[in-house]
């Protein structure tokens, strides 16, 4: 990959971490945690998905422990949220759009990184999903609530898995990384945005109370 | 180990994963999670114990990420539970017997795998315990409840640890793998079944309310 | 490092694990868990922080799985707490002082171990923090409560991070390991004791109810 692509990847990666970290810090503020709790949830939400993936695929220490920018970005996101959370609360829709973008990027990056270490396309799809949703699940566990993605709400995990699958199976059949990453991320992002806009939900088991 | 033994091991392993995944999916259905939540709890409960063990003993990526059958089995278990959970609720006793079988197998397999990478028999026993109960603990954490095995109830973890210890210390003193695995699994399975049948409980700290 | 220093390190390490394990077992007793729940929380609280650090920095299996003393100490701590918890409840202040000592040691040991495998001083500080507070966070998650360190209370994590930072950045600029470990541990310990004595709290986000 040419240097300008690598730079693009790092920048979008850091943007994704930043937005995820803001969502973690906002949860901490709403739970009335102190400044340390805000920083921990910012770090965990921004970096947790990638940490779980890297530990599972055996790539340790994770990249975020080897490049200080990956630690500084969620710390800055946490501090900004700590000070400016009333303003952030007013732009929640914009944050959701950025969150969808981060999700799309993490899903395809996680899936392709798993294939780089030799995993098949199905496990790589699972790793892409873990990369996208793992940080938010850790955030919710630490904040003492059932992970949001397991509960009723607009589709979140299914578009993530679909985007990761497009990237993983696309590369498996021979397409280039940039093409499958773009296609997978676009699918995930557009589907997630449509799900928020049109209030699409995943099916519930029979016998559950209707939504 | 002769090929027919290996095949037996894989089949019993997959059966154990299937049954654990069903228990995870049933918890998700009762918590009224959506189809994705059902699949996540099925995957986590079926594979979580082995993942924690493999990450701790440094065998990454875990086998379940290298052989797609290990991912497909809990997915199928989750989908079946999603559709047929009323029927599964009626055969809960049968599920508990299969769960005891899965527990017995996971305990001895986890302990022996830990010894294969050079751990002593005491840490290997802990790894066997983690393999057996780790998936259920993750299931309960994600479902927002204190892990069932930490709470009052019929003996669950103690038979698991005992079975793992028989396998680990048995091999340490020189018995064959098949012998110690059979003895350890039989001890765990029979003890667990008796505990359910006779309502055996673990001791409580002094001063706790009586059960 | 001379042998007498290594022995000192192992002894203080085991003392730290013992005290942390007692705090975990006390939480289990208060939650009315059974004897197994007490042992699991003792093991998790005593060893969890080091396990998370070792898994993240890729040093697996963790030392605690290779040296049986590291498993026996929290088991003994759990059994003692199970039997003598009324007496332990009466010396809670003494336990808090030992806990501060364990925290100080874990923070600097974790940071220096991370630097030993090549991490920079900022990630090493994070690893020192994880080593110090990770076990207690796992304890609280398993016990079904939001981790104590994320909530209002006397400063706990910030002295830990400061002690780890002194050790990591001190070694980075060339000071000896023993000097930076002593300075970092002393800072963490004294700050934590002062915070308990003078009821120092971390800042809260704007708009939170005052403490």
Assembly state of the chains shown: homotrimer
Task: Assess the beta-strand content of chain A as a share of residues.
Answer: under 5%
Total domains of chain A: 1
Q: Note poorly predicted spans of chain A.
A: none
Q: Which series of helices and strands of chain A comes N to C?
A: HHHHHHH
* Principal-axis shape of chain A: globular
The N- and C-terminal alpha carbons of chain A lie at a distance of 46 Å
Instruction: State Rg of chain A.
Output: 17 Å
Percent in helix of chain A: over 70%
Strand elements of chain A, count: 0
Number of helices of chain A: 7
Query: Biggest protein-protein interface?
Result: A-B, 32 and 32 residues
Major sheet attributes of chain A: none
**What structural class do the secondary elements of chain A suggest?**
mainly alpha
User: What is the arithmetic mean of pLDDT of chain A?
Assistant: 87
InterPro entries (chains A, B, C): Gly_transporter
Main location (chains A, B, C): membrane
Pfam families (chains A, B, C): Gly_transporter
Transmembrane segments (chains A, B, C): 6-29, 36-56, 68-85, 97-115, 121-141, 175-194
């Amino acid at each position: 990959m040419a240097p300008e692509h690598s730079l693009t990847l790092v920048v979008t990666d850091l943007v994704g971490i930043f937005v995820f970290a803001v969502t973690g810090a906002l949860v901490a503020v709403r739970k009335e945690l102190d400044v340390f709790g805000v920083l921990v949830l910012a770090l965990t939400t921004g970096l947790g998905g990638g940490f779980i993936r890297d530990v599972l695929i055996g790539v340790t220490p994770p990249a975020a422990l080897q490049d200080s920018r990956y630690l500084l970005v969620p710390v800055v996101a946490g501090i900004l949220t700590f000070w400016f959370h009333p303003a952030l609360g007013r732009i929640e829709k914009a944050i959701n759009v950025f969150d969808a973008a981060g999700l799309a990027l993490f899903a395809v990056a996680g899936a392709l990184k798993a294939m780089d270490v030799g995993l098949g396309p199905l496990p790589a799809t699972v790793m892409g999903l873990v990369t996208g949703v793992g940080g938010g699940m850790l955030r919710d566990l630490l904040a003492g609530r059932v992970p949001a993605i397991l509960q009723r709400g607009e589709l979140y995990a299914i578009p993530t898995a679909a985007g990761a699958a497009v990237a993983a199976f696309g590369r498996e059949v021979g397409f280039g990384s940039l093409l499958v990453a773009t296609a997978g991320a676009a699918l995930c992002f557009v589907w997630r945005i449509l799900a928020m806009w049109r209030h699409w939900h995943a099916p519930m088991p029979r016998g559950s109370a209707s939504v």
